Amino acid sequence: MLDIREAAVHFGGVKAVDGVTLHLGAGKIYGLLGPNGSGKSTLLAAVSGLVELTRGSIAHVGHTARRHTAADIARAGVARTFQTVRLLSDITVFDNVLLGADHADRHRPGVPDDRMRRWFHGARGNRQAAAAALERVGLAGAERLRPHQLPYGAQRRVEIARAIAMRPALLLLDEPVAGMNRQERTEISDVLLKLREEGQGLTQLLVEHDVQMITDTCDHVFVMNFGVLIAEGAPDHVVRNTAVREAYLGKRWEQHADG
Ligand code: ADP
Ligand code: MG
What we know:
Bound molecules: adenosine-5'-diphosphate, magnesium ion
Helix content: 40-55%
Strand content: 15-25%
Radius of gyration: 19 Å
Structural class: alpha/beta
Mean pLDDT: 85
Strand order of the largest sheet: 6-7-8-3-9-10
Distance between the termini: 40 Å
CATH class of the largest domain: Alpha Beta
Number of helices: 9
Shape: globular
């Protein structure tokens, strides 16, 4: 599904990602943990084609993507959400999600002499895909609202809906529960688990700081520090790893212990 080999992204002297090899299989939820500045967002940017690799390779669903554009990669079935909310404020929630569905549809191969019929069919199919995506994130009924009329947690779910409406094979989520309370976190976690249970082979890669979210949601976890992988494995196993606790979890666990 996703094969990253010896990937490096350097910004001048900053080695944001510096030789990461990892493999994601279909249908699972993967977690990516690591302290601030460890290169998680840069790795997602490389996977989605927003930054170029300094070296190494990334292959998605069989395409080796060293020189592909972000649009090529989206077309190949990679959707993502960003670390901060990025919704269009002048259009409705439904139309925001429809953008994802339209994008996927526009790039499907078609029959040139039957363009009009295809357009109508596509338009209806896209509206259904957008409605279904909103329903999956628990926001059926919010279609006609503007994004700012929703609470922050729901806005983040609209972004997930927009990504799902693209009918991706790989979904990248950069800190989808940052700034949320426990209940909102659980709601997002439930959405991701439901997507996995639907069994359509969707692979999810989730960047997250919240240890509980990771252990509740992920099948497999990768941990980065200073641009390299320092551990990977089953969530419970990884959070017990000494190097991981020293690099990252120690402080948080002490905070938890302090109450
Ligand atoms: P994380 O998401 O794990 O917090 P990032 O991938 O955002 O980490 O950043 C990794 C490192 O790369 C940081 O030192 C950051 O300052 C640097 N960095 C990220 N993007 C850029 C950029 N566009 N130009 C220069 N440095 C960058
Ligand atoms: Mg980040």
